[in-house]
Design a protein that fits this description.
7-stranded mixed sheet
């Protein structure tokens, strides 16, 4: 541990946190093991044993697991999650974040202090995210308030690929959601909070936001808020998607890039004021602390600020900087404070990107001819910038694919063009906000100049995102494949100096290509897969036929602005590596379902669309849009059947709503969609699954004739479940199980439930 001791310590501690998350060891045995390892380490130190280093690493791993266990498991008995479930409550607490107004509602974090429930009062603790229909500016950080509203659990991910909102909030110290309908449910009680943040950081943050709002409008204003403060909620989905596709979404989330720019701006400013090197460095460190406070101490900002401060402080002491050790120290401090930070995407990308630059960039530079770096400063800067961006891309690629199911191929070029513009906008934005306090006219002058750079950034990002294959869709990589990828980066970085590295890389590439080829040859051999997604009260089914064809039935609908097609169906298709849809079936022609299908049409452009012969205005508009996109459309009539693959056949059934289907594969049969009235005639195969959105409307005579082994429904009441069991039918409630995947070879089948991770096997 002589080189980069802080980095190695931080990695061992992080490994322990991850192990604690995966294994959930009991705290008492873990604490005993930690004490034992500590005693053995002391003995090994005094005896100068060769086991000292392994014992230290084991102790650090155990310490990380223990820290995670204490944070995740040892909740106080009066914690809000222990006292209250879901329901209408009265709460007292402290507004612990700067409220954000999105044009409709105000969102803020509340630190709970007192709970009023069923006529009793309980002291409590925990974080609550409040969404209130109150005007902007009514509340500020540090306000102590009484709130009356609906308390609820944050929703979890019920489908593969779906964003897990509950885990995300938990990592940020939020345990519950609270909804408030009107200002009368909010009562101001007084002031509190951290005095430095109350009278320093929060007013400065509000002043910056007010300065931006007074000088800029629309997307340029929202973009500047994202660049300076990480506030990108007001940016349109179109703009955010453009930044994501162009590979520069990180400029909208404060990270090491922003902190590096802040260091450059303030250090250059102080040096231009003829301050000495040490004084300029110390003043820059103070500015970093202020910027971290204004940015609400986000983990990525804290990490970058600590690292920058350590390097600047080391230079003041005339010590040679060790950036890798500095980043290890920063990570260790953050993880000790909050072990859940390691599961935050911003934390992961920030650390991996920085390590990639520090370790991979010099290695890649050695591989390229030295002539690329000669010929003037501009050529050297261009080559170096491209190589830095490529190093970051190689380092964070598995994280991008896992979380977003996309890899922006154009990212190195995009960063080369966009990042300098962002740096200029950041400098002008900070300077304009500061000058606005002195003279509004000076602030307006800088804002006018900044408008040009912001508009140029938006235009350039939109242009880059439209380049064909600027980003590609990829399935989530497995942990084994991710580990294999990073193992390949090691020999890649030593190709020039090591013959063994070149041999290992060649063997690895050939082995991986061979594995992928055989996987493609054997993919889906004789297996039919049906995945019933959990989409609230609606329905959406993905059918994967043998040999790789993909069929989608419905998009789940839209409820309260939440589009299940965009938020659930598309992420699921991306997570399983689907880049196209062979057939889209509109079984339910209502307006909510059609709304959920629009983003799917735009993203996947299915090869064909079929639906019921209905004449509703919304459905006629939908079919017109399909035809305008040059997608073949077919009206389905009663009795029509489709051969999807050898042995796989869909046939229409009578239904009171839209279309219902009988899907047959060898010895098994599925009944899908709509409100089925009667089974198809001459049905030789036993039905294993009956999927319906309204099981209460199925008559017992129908169920006794069809005799399904299972019924899948969006939700089932206890009475409905009991009635089905009396008919010897197993109920499957998507609200409880999450997405359900049925796999069958035509003779046997298995049922896998997403939330419970159960997988059960059955014979016909």
């Amino acid at each position: 541990m002589k080189k980069q001791p802080a980095l190695k310590t931080g990695l061992a501690f992080a490994l322990g946190i991850i192990g604690g998350r995966l294994l959930h060891p009991p705290l008492l045995p873990l604490f005993s093991a930690l004490v034992l390892l500590f005693l053995l380490t002391i003995i090994a130190h005094f005896k100068r044993s060769s086991l000292l280093t392994p014992l230290i690493f084991l102790a650090l791993i155990a310490g990380g697991a223990m820290r995670y266990g204490v944070k995740a498991q040892l909740l106080p008995p009066n914690h809000i999650s222990q006292l209250a479930g879901s329901g209408y409550v009265r709460l007292e607490g402290l507004v612990s974040s700067d409220p954000v107004f999105d044009g409709v509602r105000t969102r803020f974090k509340l630190r709970a202090e007192q709970l009023h429930l069923q006529g009793k009062e309980f002291p409590t603790s925990g974080g609550i995210l409040v969404k209130a229909n109150i005007p902007s500016g009514l509340l500020q950080y540090g306000d102590r308030v009484e709130l009356r509203g609906w308390l609820s659990e944050p929703p979890t991910a019920a489908n593969l690929g779906q964003f897990n909102y509950r885990h995300y909030l938990h990592q940020h110290g939020i345990d519950k959601l609270m909804s408030i309908r009107n200002p009368s449910q909010v009562r101001f009680l007084g002031k509190g909070g951290n005095p430095i943040r109350l009278h320093g950081f929060s007013p400065m943050r509000r002043a910056i936001l007010a300065s931006i709002d007074s000088h800029l409008r629309g997307d340029p204003a929202h973009l500047l808020k994202g660049i300076i403060l990480g506030e990108r909620q007001a940016l349109s989905k179109r703009v955010q998607k453009a930044f994501s596709d162009a590979g520069v979404i990180h400029v909208l989330a404060i990270s090491g890039l922003h902190v590096g720019l802040v260091i450059t701006i303030f250090f250059t400013l102080f040096r231009s004021m003829r301050l000495g090197f040490r004084l300029s460095s110390l003043a820059t460190i103070l500015m970093l602390g202020a910027y971290s406070g204004i940015a609400q101490f986000r983990p990525s900002v804290v990490r970058s600020s600590i690292m920058g401060a350590l390097i600047l402080f080391g230079l003041c002491l005339q010590r040679k900087p060790n950036p890798l050790n500095s980043i290890g120290a920063a990570g260790l401090l953050i993880l000790i404070s909050n072990p859940l930070a390691i599961f935050d995407l911003g934390f992961q990308l920030s650390f991996v990107a920085t390590i990639s630059i520090l370790w991979l960039y010099p290695k890649l530079k050695e591989l390229l001819p030295q002539t690329l770096w000669r010929g003037g400063r501009l050529k050297g800067w261009l080559g170096g910038s491209l190589l830095v961006s490529l190093s970051v891309q190689l380092g964070i690629a598995p994280f991008l694919i896992y979380h977003f199911h996309r890899l922006p191929l154009i990212s190195p070029l995009s960063n080369l063009l966009v990042v300098p513009l962002v740096g200029i906008s950041l400098a002008l934005g900070l300077a304009g906000s500061a000058l606005s306090l002195i003279s509004p006219h000076l602030g307006y002058t800088l804002a006018a100049a900044n408008w040009l750079f912001l508009k140029l950034t938006l235009w350039l990002t939109g242009l880059l995102s439209q380049i064909p294959y600027s980003s590609i869709s990829l399935p989530s990589p497995s942990p084994l494949l991710t580990g294999f990828y990073y193992l390949c980066l090691i020999p890649l970085a030593h190709l020039k100096s090591s013959l063994l590295a070149r041999k290992w890389l060649l063997i690895s590439i050939l082995g991986l290509a061979n594995l992928l080829c055989w996987k493609g040859v054997l993919k889906g051999e004789g297996e039919l897969k049906l995945t019933f997604l959990s989409v609230g009260k609606g329905s959406s089914t993905v059918i994967q036929v043998p040999r790789g064809g993909t069929i989608l039935i419905d998009g789940g609908g839209e409820r309260r602005g939440y589009n299940f097609g965009e938020r659930v169906v598309i992420p699921y298709l991306q997570s399983i590596g689907k880049r196209s849809i062979d057939l889209l079936i509109v079984a339910n022609p209502d307006q909510a379902n059609l709304a959920s299908l629009l983003p799917i049409l735009s993203e996947y452009r299915p090869k064909a669309v079929i639906g019921p012969p209905t004449t509703s205005l919304s459905y006629l508009r939908f079919t017109q849009m399909v035809r305008e996109m040059d997608i073949p459309y077919l009206d389905l009539q009663k009795g029509v059947s489709l051969d999807l693959a050898p042995g796989v056949k869909i046939e229409l059934l009578p239904s009171s709503l839209g279309i219902a289907f009988s899907l047959k594969y060898k010895m098994v049969s599925f009944l899908l969609g709509g409100e089925i009235k009667q089974p198809i005639e001459h049905q030789p195969s036993p039905t294993i699954i009956l999927e319906t959105t309204n099981p209460a409307r199925l008559p017992n005579s129908f169920l006794e004739e069809v005799k399904p082994r299972f019924i899948i429904a969006p939700s089932l009441s206890p009475e409905e479940r009991e009635a089905l069991r009396e008919l010897r039918i197993s109920p499957l409630d998507l609200r409880q199980t999450g997405a359900i995947t049925i796999s069958s070879d035509g003779e046997k089948f298995s049922i896998r439930k997403y939330l419970t991770k159960e997988k059960e096997f059955y014979n016909m």
